[in-house]
């Protein structure tokens, strides 16, 4: 009836973990953002971590939200508190490019283009894994968790 054999539970867990492993393998090889996000969601679902509705994290300074940090997705293991944010290195580079290389709606200007490229190169960290944008996401995630705990 409603009874589930422990062997069935273990087998279901094994199937779920196998699905997560195949998603991890596809995540390592795919280049399209939607594919990466879907693969990450499959992996996290195996561990009961689900996507939230929001993709931005508020960044607080002096108890005021001063910025909203875009991510590719925010995930949580409970109904309220976010526990993980997803961002790709490609997205970080795209956000930088959009910030520095604003569209001018005029013809191409080579000197301005060179200045923009130099500025982009100057703010690119030598090691992508040590990017300040990732630190900002981690700080914003911690701030959101702390605010949720204080509200409870």
The end-to-end distance, rounded to whole angstroms, is 39 Å
Radius of gyration: 20 Å
The backbone outline, from C-alpha atoms, is: globular
Number of domains: 2
Unreliable runs, pLDDT <50, ≥5 residues? Answer: 1-5
**If strands are numbered along the chain, what order do they take across the biggest sheet?**
1-4-5
Sequence of secondary-structure elements:
HHEEEEEHHH
Largest sheet, if any?
3 strands, antiparallel
What is the overall pLDDT average?
82
- Give the tally of β-strands: 5
Class by alpha and beta content: alpha+beta
Give the gist of this structure.
This protein is α+β, with helices and mostly antiparallel strands and 152 residues long. The protein has helices at 6-29, 33-45, 89-100, 110-123, 132-151, and strands spanning 50-51, 56-61, 64-70, 73-76, 84-86.
Description:
This protein has 152 residues and is α+β, with helices and mostly antiparallel strands. The protein folds into two domains: 1-48; 49-151, no CATH class. The chain has five helices and five strands, in the order ααβββββααα. The protein has helices at residues 6-29, 33-45, 89-100, 110-123, 132-151, and strands at 50-51, 56-61, 64-70, 73-76, 84-86. A three-stranded antiparallel beta sheet has the order 1-4-5, sandwiched between helices. It has a two-stranded antiparallel ribbon with strand order 2-3. Strand 2 (56-61) and strand 3 (64-70) form a beta hairpin. The model is unreliable at 1-5 (pLDDT under 50).
